[in-house]
Design goal:
Blueprint (H helix, E strand, L loop, with lengths): L1 H7 L26
């Protein structure tokens, strides 16, 4: 679960709310629902 640590390190938590996470840092919404 490296993704959880990677995404959790940002200012949003995708594991908490399936909608609070946004790939604004990447500019690509490829992993907006990974």
């Amino acid at each position: 679960q490296a993704q959880r640590d990677f995404f959790g390190a940002h200012t949003y938590r995708r594991v908490d709310r399936p909608g609070t996470f946004h790939t604004t840092w990447s500019g690509d919404r490829s992993e907006v629902e990974a």
